[in-house]
Amino acid sequence: MNLLLCAIVILGVGTLVIKKFKAQTVLLLGGLIMMLGAYFLGYTTEFVEAKKGTGMMFFDAFEWINNTTAKDAAGLGLMIMTCTGFAKYMDHIGASSRLVTTAIKPLQAMKAPYLVLSLTFLLNMFMSLVIPSASGLAMLMMVTIFPILVRLGVSPVGAAAAVATGHLLDIGPASATSLLVSKTVGLGVEEYFVGYQLKVYIISGIVTAIAHYIWQQYMDKKSGHIPSEAVHTEPQEKVDVGPLAYLVLPFLPLVFMLGFSQYGIAGIKMNVNLAMFLSLFIAMVFELIRLRDFRKVAASIQTFFKGMGDQFTNTVTLIVAGETFAFGLTSLGIVNEFVTFIKTFSIQADMVGVIVSVIILVLSIVMGSGVASMFAFSPLVPNFAKELGGNAITMLLGMQNAASVGRLLSPISAVMIAVAGVANISSFDLVKRTAVPVLITFITSTICILIFH
After folding, report:
1. 294-335, pLDDT tens digit by residue?
2. What are phi and psi of 263, to 5 degrees?
3. Which of 43, 232, 334, 412 could be joined to 38 by an S-S link, Cβ 3.0–4.6 Å?
4. What's the pLDDT score for residue 198?
5. How far apart are CA 2 and CA 117, in angstroms?
6. Over the Cα atoms of the chain, what is R_g?
7. Per-residue confidence band for 100, with pLDDT thresholds at 50, 70 and 90
C-alpha cells in the first residue's frame, strides 16, 4: 500500500512540475500527503519528538515543517543567501563584467573560430567558479564573446551552444547544490571542492571542450553554414564594466575559503558566510575609493540584501519543500524498501550511484532545473548509501553533476531559453547543439567518479 501511495504522489508531483506548477507548493503538498499517509497506514507514530509535539498529529506535520524551516534558514539557507547576495553585488558594481571582458581580450586576436569557441567554453567554465548564476554568466558572455564568435565565422547556434554550456557543472563554495552536498554529508565545502569536485571538473571540461570543437564544426558544415555569410551580430545591450582592479573581487570568497583551511593557513577558522561578508566589506571599500560618495556606497548594500531575499524566496523555500518531500518518502519506509530491493539483486553501490544519477538527469531534463530534484532526493542518500556500503559523497557528486548537465539538455531551462532568446534561435535547436557535448560530459564525469573515488 505504501508503494502505491508513493507512486501516485511521485507521478502527481512530476506531472504538476512539468506543467509549471510552483515546485515548492507541489513538493510540500506531496510530502504532507505521504507523511499523513504514513501515519494512517501505521508506518510512523510521530513526526517530531513527543516532548516537542503539539498534541495533535496533523499539527505535528506542520510543526516538522516549522522546525525544518528554522534549521535551514539559519544554516544551509543562510550560506546560499549570502553567496547570492555577494554575486548580485559583484554584478551591481561591474566586477563580474570586468572579469569577463578582461578574460576574453586575448581571444579577440585569434583567427581560428572553432579553437576560440573551445577556449571560450573553458574560460566560461573557469569563471563559473566565481559567478554562480548560470543564466547571469551566460548573459554576460552573450553580450561580449558571442558577437566575436559569430564574426569569426561560427554559426549563431554553435556559438550559443558554447556559451550556454559554459556553466557546465555546479562547483565551488558559491554553488547552492555544492553547499547542499557538503551540508548533507557533514564535509567542509572547501574540502568537497578540492578533494572531490575539482579533478572531475577539470577532466570533464577538457573533454567537453574537444567535443565542442569537433561537434560544432561538424554541425556547421552539415547545416551548410558558410563563415563568410555569418551574420555580424552586435551586442543588443551594453554592460557596466568596473575598473581593472575589480578583477580580483569575485575571487575573494574562494581565496578566503581555501586560504584559511587545510590547504592554506589552518590556524584560522573560516566559513562560507564569513568569507562572503569579508569579501563584501572589501568590495565596498573599493567602491568608496572609486566613487568617493559614502552615501551611495552605503545604499549599495541593499543590492546584497535584496539578493539574499530573492534567494530565500527561490531556493531556501525549495530546500524546505524538498526536505518535506524526502521526509514523506522516509516516513513511508520507501528508503528501506529500496535498499532491500537493491540487496536482493546484489547490485553494487557504485552501480546504484550511476542509476540514481541517470534518474536525476532525466528529472532535470523534464523539469528544466536540477535544483528541485537534488533538494528532494539528496537527504535520502546518506541512509541508503550506508545500508549498501557505498560512499554517500560520491553518490551525491554524481547526482549533482547529473542535475547540472540535465538543465543543458532541457529546452525549458532558464539558461537555455535566455541564450536562445538573445541569439534569436529556437531553444530546441540549441539543445541539438548542446546534446552531444553535454552527454559526453555526463559519461566522462561518471567514469571519473568511479575511477577516482
Report:
1. 999 999 999 999 988 888 887 778 878 888 888 888 888 877
2. -95, 0
3. 43
4. 92
5. 51
6. 23
7. confident
* Buried residues in 365-399 as b, exposed as e (16+ CB within 10 A): bebbbbbbbbbbbbbbbbebbebbebbbbbbbbbb
Question: What percent of the chain lies above the pLDDT cut of 70?
Answer: 97
Q: Cβ neighbours of residue 19 under 8 Å, at least 6 residues apart? A: none
The per-residue pLDDT for range 75-93, each reduced to its tens digit, is: 778 888 898 899 889 989 9
Length of the chain: 453
User: How far is Cα 189 from Cα 271, in angstroms, rounded to an integer?
Assistant: 9
C-alpha cell at 187: 564535509
State the average pLDDT over residues 419-425.
88
Q: Which three cell numbers stand for residue 171?
A: 562547483
Q: What is d(CA 372, CA 374) in angstroms, rounded to the nearest whole number?
A: 6
Residue pointed to by grid coordinates 494512517: 40
pLDDT (0 to 100) of residue 237? 55
Cβ-Cβ contacts under 8 Å for 212 (sequence gap 6 or more) = 117, 118, 121, 161, 162, 165, 437
